[in-house]
Fold this sequence. Notes:
This protein is of the alpha/beta class. Helix content is 49%, strand content 11%.
Amino acid sequence: MINLSELDNNQKTSLANSAFLKSCRGESTDHKPIWLMRQAGRYQKEFQNIRKKVSLLELCKRPDLVSEVTLLPVQQLNVDAAIIFADILLPLDAMGAGLSYVEGKGPVIENAVSSLADMANLKTIEPNDLNYVMDAIKLTRQNLKADIPLIGFAGAPFTLVSYLVEGGSTRDFKKTKLFMYKQSDVFHALMETISEFTWRYLNEQINAGVQAIQLFDSWVGCLSPSDYKQFVLPYSKKIFDNVKKSTTSISHIPAIHFATSSYGLLELMREAGGDVFGVDWRAPIDNAWQKIGHDRAIQGNLDPHVLFADKKMILEKTKEILRATKDKHGHIFNLGHGVLPATSVDNVKYLVEIVHDLGGNK
Ligand code: CP3
């Protein structure tokens, strides 16, 4: 097992000069970098074959399989970064919330939280309760091409609390919002506990060998800017501040701040922190970038459904994004949300190819 500090200087230099990390820093690159959220998943038959043998939770706890699955998209698609295969809900499993993934239904939390007493039943967790993630990072860093950065990640407190309170996926976030308004003290206490854990968890991932981190606040776009400011911003800010503080000695590890439906929140998300902002397709990427400010990098924002269309449409929609980000440094091409399960691998490969071919200056 190696640690980042054990990477030799040549490798550190080639990683630092990768198109992905240069773009995170807003520097010019020889080609436009691209990686895809959920780039390892059910749309790949190799992944399906592994999933026939083990459940998602078992997979996440097997560093050998995690490493194999993490490398798949790098080998198959030629993407510019790998993301460690894990799930944002793993801390809830360690807390004893009764996490399972149910076919056709998604994540289910058996011990959903609706009171202070429910919260008190959750275990206090430490990053080393998820040591299997750190082991997987160390192994993957060893197996990954020397010039491909590895991204670590965590769920943001609001998004994790929404799963804890709803007991699974939701469309309207009704329980979460009522909990936030009517039991604000318990809501704040949960946000505090989760944010304290999260910055330490991300720092452990950095120590284990990732070159960038992403905070997934996937569902925070359901909130008004005022509620974001009051109920979320201080906790996300604490995470970015603390991750930053402890990484300056290692060399700067860029932090990506991602949410969907976030157009009305972008200025506040910037205030919370992050070097790169992940945005979805609900706003034109140049407008979003304008709001964030061009002194920060941007990531996105193709609608994942475009990958179900024919190549002509994929090309057209991709060119729109390339045109809107042309002549600026600091754009990392990605989807606006994860790759969908039935996506054609061929179309994903095509997307990576055209971004690499045309991304520079067309
Ligand atoms: O991007 C990657 O390749 C890394 C792997 C990854 C997974 N989950 C694996 C996974 C990442 C980055 C995540 C993050 C995640 N998980 C988010 C944030 C991103 C987003 O989509 O908003 C969220 C909200 C979750 C929670 C979660 N996990 C849901 C809602 C589901 C079910 C959705 C589905 O597609 O069925 C999961 C399960 C999950 N996590 C799968 C994968 C590959 C599908 C598992 C399977 O059945 O094989």
